[in-house]
Design a protein that fits this description.
By secondary structure, the chain is an all-alpha fold. 79% of the residues lie in helices and 0% in strands. The chain is built from six helices and no strands. Helix 3 packs across helix 4. It is elongated and about 55 Å long.
Length: 134
């Protein structure tokens, strides 16, 4: 999440400030996309191996779409997170092909911002109290 915010801020300042697209910007973008890939691998392992939510959802049959909590974990969370990762990859790949620095930054800004918004929309905020109690 922090890398997303750093990338978005750097991309916006590079776009509006007409800054050169240097190795730092390229490395930050690669680190963000790489971190998202790592999150995907960890998430898939949790989803298919360790998650009681996924086991409940898969064991429910047709009722999964009728129950909001099961639908959230079985469909909404994983689908939107994968879409966010895909958008980040697309943004990074499109920016890589562009030669104009301002357009590179603008492309990254747009795609990374949408990816961050999608990720934030599917974080289970309703369970924050259970997940972060001390």
């Amino acid at each position: 999440m922090a890398l997303a915010i750093v990338n978005i801020v750097k991309s916006y300042s590079g776009w509006k400030g007409a800054k050169p697209y240097d190795k730092g910007a390229k490395g930050l973008g690669a680190a963000f996309v790489g971190t998202m890939d790592l999150n995907l691998l960890i998430g898939l392992a949790l989803y298919f191996v360790y998650s009681p939510f996924a086991f409940n959802a898969f064991g429910s049959g047709a009722n999964v779409m009728k129950t909001a909590n099961l639908r959230y974990w079985a469909v909404e969370h994983i689908f939107v997170m994968i879409a966010a990762i895909a958008l980040a990859h697309i943004g990074k790949a499109k920016a890589k092909k562009i030669t104009d620095n301002a357009k590179k930054y603008k492309t990254q800004f747009i795609f990374f911002t949408i990816a961050l918004i999608l990720m934030l929309s599917r974080i289970p905020w309703h369970e924050a109290g259970r997940l972060f109690r001390f």
